[in-house]
């Protein structure tokens, strides 16, 4: 029973089934409501006609009763109201039309006030429904009660046929609507089914995209969005493979050197200078540790790990970092007062250290650092008087493990991840880091959102 209940639950239905069921139900309710209102309007029209005609017939009969002491047979002037009857004050029949001739008084309620017609629908003689209009009349011959009645054949005779037509119409219309909606939804969802089958066939190495249907509608927009997502996934996969290859290459070099040194030393251990071997092995271990540490920072930045931020004065931070340790060339700082930003201080220190170390490595005699406010942004620049960076290399220097030839010569122990980490830190703070144009040497420009004092 529970399985059957789950299958009957709308939550287990397909989109096509749910849309068809809802549309069919709505149409069925609208048809039932519309036909019912039409029937009530038709019925109201019939009763209004009976009301108006009955009032005229009773009024004419009352006028006649006031003029003469009517007895015997009453002539019918309106064929629609063939039942006419006149009673005296004691309820005895004085006059009647042919259909009521010889019958007793009509059992219809009478208004207690003279001159005010009463309208009632009664089942007369147990045969059919009749519409009666009655009125009390005061005459010089005594009180009289007049009746005028008409069979309600239009409504009563057509009611079964009308109800049957109502049921047939609702069933046929709802079935037709359900069938049309089902086919329409199936046709509309056909591109989605095609995309689903194509997505199921696409694997990590498949270079293909889903089919975009011809009509420019929501489904085609979905297909285009899926293709954009696949392009991004392919780009991420390509970069991930390149990253793994670069990491493997960078880690293999110090590991290979370390292994070679130890193997050579172990072949003739008595002739080796073990302190020198240990120093060389320690240098390779330091390089490995640096690479692993940088990779860990990149992984945290890429994963968007939340780190607490605080308000930091960038000028004070630059002055403190520039004077923290002696450098090969002097560092000049020009920082405006009150330029603050909400940052993670340790990450910004790492960014600034990377830029200063890079500038010191390539500078000939001096390094300049400036901090200024530019509208809603804080701008930090680091410049040197070295040979500079060629325009075609200004974006490559931010690639992982990419090092220019000059950088390799000046720092053979570098990991090639410093500028990559710096740019990721800038992006994590909603900013940018670029290698900009410069009249002399290299010029790196950091822009991050500034916090008003």
From TrEMBL:
Alphabetically ordered keywords of this record: Kinase, Membrane, Phosphoprotein, Transferase, Transmembrane, Transmembrane helix, Two-component regulatory system
Pfam families with a match to the protein in the record: HAMP (PF00672), HATPase_c (PF02518), HisKA (PF00512)
KW Transmembrane (keyword) present: yes
TM segment ranges: 21-42, 161-185
Gene Ontology molecular function: phosphorelay sensor kinase activity
Residue stretches making up the HAMP domain: 186-238
Catalytic activity: ATP + protein L-histidine = ADP + protein N-phospho-L-histidine
Enzyme class, UniProt record, top EC level: transferase
EC number: 2.7.13.3
A GO cellular-component term linked to this record: plasma membrane
UniProt xrefs under InterPro entries: HAMP_dom, HATPase_C_sf, HATPase_dom, His_kinase_dom, HisK_dim/P_dom, HisK_dim/P_sf, Sig_transdc_His_kin-like_C, TCS_sensor_his_kinase
Domain Histidine kinase: 246-452
Keyword Ligase: no
Predominant subcellular localization, coarse grouping: membrane
Subcellular location: Cell membrane
PANTHER family per the UniProt record, alphabetical: SENSOR HISTIDINE KINASE TRCS, SENSOR HISTIDINE KINASE YKOH
Protein name: histidine kinase
Originating species: Actinomadura coerulea
């Amino acid at each position: 029973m529970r399985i059957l209940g789950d299958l009957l639950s709308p939550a287990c239905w397909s989109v096509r089934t749910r849309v068809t069921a809802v549309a069919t139900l709505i149409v069925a309710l609208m048809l039932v409501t519309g036909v019912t209102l039409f029937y009530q309007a038709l019925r109201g029209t019939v009763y209004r006609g009976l009301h108006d005609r009955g009032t005229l017939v009773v009024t004419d009969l009352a006028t006649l009763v006031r003029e003469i002491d009517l007895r015997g047979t009453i002539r019918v002037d309106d064929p629609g109201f063939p039942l006419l009857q006149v009673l005296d004050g004691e309820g005895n029949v004085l006059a009647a039309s042919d259909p009521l001739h010889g019958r007793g008084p009509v059992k219809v309620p009478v208004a207690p006030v003279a001159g005010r017609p009463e309208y009632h629908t009664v089942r007369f003689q147990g045969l059919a429904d009749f519409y009666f209009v009655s009125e009390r009349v005061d005459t010089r011959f005594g009180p009289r009660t007049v009746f005028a009645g008409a069979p309600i054949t239009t409504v009563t005779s057509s009611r079964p046929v009308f109800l049957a037509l109502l049921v047939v119409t609702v069933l046929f219309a709802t079935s037709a609507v359900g069938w049309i909606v089902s086919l329409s939804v199936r046709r509309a969802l056909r591109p989605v089914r095609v995309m689903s089958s194509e997505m199921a066939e696409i694997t990590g190495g498949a270079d293909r995209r889903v089919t975009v249907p011809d009509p420019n509608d929501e489904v085609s927009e979905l297909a285009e969005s899926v293709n954009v997502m696949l392009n991004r996934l392919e780009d991420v996969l390509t970069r991930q493979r390149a990253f793994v290859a670069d990491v493997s290459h960078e880690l293999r070099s110090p590991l290979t050197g370390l292994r070679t040194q130890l193997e050579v030393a172990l072949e003739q251990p008595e002739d080796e200078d073990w302190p020198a071997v240990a120093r060389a092995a320690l240098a390779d271990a330091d390089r490995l540790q640096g690479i692993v540490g940088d990779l860990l920072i990149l992984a945290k930045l890429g994963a968007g790990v939340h780190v607490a931020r605080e308000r930091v004065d960038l000028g004070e931070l630059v002055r403190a970092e520039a004077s923290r340790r002696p450098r090969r060339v002097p560092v000049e700082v020009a920082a405006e007062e009150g330029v603050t930003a909400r940052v993670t201080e340790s990450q910004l220190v790492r960014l600034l250290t990377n830029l200063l170390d890079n500038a010191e490595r390539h500078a000939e005699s001096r390094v300049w650092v400036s901090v200024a406010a530019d509208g809603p942004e804080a701008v930090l620049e680091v410049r040197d008087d070295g040979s500079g960076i060629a325009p075609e290399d200004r974006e490559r220097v931010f690639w992982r493990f990419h090092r220019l030839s000059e950088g390799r010569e000046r720092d053979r122990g570098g990991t090639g991840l410093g500028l990559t980490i710096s740019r990721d830190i800038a992006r994590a703070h909603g900013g940018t880091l670029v290698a900009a144009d410069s009249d002399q040497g290299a010029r790196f420009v950091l822009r991050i959102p500034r916090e008003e004092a």
